[in-house]
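Appendix B. Chain record.
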Amino acid sequence: MEVAAGELFLIATPIGNLADITLRALETLREVDLVAAEDTRTAKKLFSRYQIKTPLISLHDNSSVKRLADLLKKLQDGEAVGVISEAGTPGISDPGYRLIQLAAAAAIRITPLPGACAAVAALCASALPLDSFYFAGFLPPRSGPRQRRLESLKEIEATLIFYESPRRLNATLETLEKVLGDRPACVARELTKIHEEFLRYPLSHLRSLGCERNWRGEITLLVAGCDLESRNRDPQTLLEEEAKLQARLADPEFVKDYSNRDLVELLMTEFPLLKRRRIYEIVLSIEP
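Structure tokens predicted for this chain:
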């Protein structure tokens, strides 16, 4: 194949099994002038397997601004540059996105070469809903920020996908159950490798399993999205929403400038779980 001058190629590489690479990816890796790799040690194994001689340069989280500027200059000078992550699709939870942004801003042509992606591979076999999903990447390592991040995701109806370190998996499972409830989930481990494993259980069971084993390998964690319809029928949830609404109405500064009708319209937006009739009843119950 022929590659265009001054073009950035985003080349998906295997996430474990080295046979999971496309013919187009191999062609492109051989034809570009340079390949920027998140981990050159991993890249050399792939290059050795397929006898690829293209020069390698590192591009990782600690790469300097100068390294990015040098790569951009090569593109502007007409060189074809490939980008590969340690495994999977470049830019997905790896530093390749910084060069992608610079290239886009400089009007450099960017060509993606589809292929392996741990998030998609895990989702397909998770037995969780596939019609809609939300990729959340890595959660914060510290407990406080991790819980706050999950609080922001708790009402998303799509299947949630996370990457996680085996060292932090048990802590994450505990926080997930605490914040999201005991939802169906799946731990996908060592995808495409010899010890590939899918554990499809509720979060509480996965947490219990974690107490009995030492997690190892690359982890993709998937959790069912929020079932808003079921949650909206939960009596306890409705009672909590009513209590919040009553507390809102107890603020004289909030209610003084609105008629009852305007209050109902405003509160319907703020408390969508409650029916209009019930909101109206609570508004009328306020003492003048």
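Further analysis of this model is presented in Appendix C.
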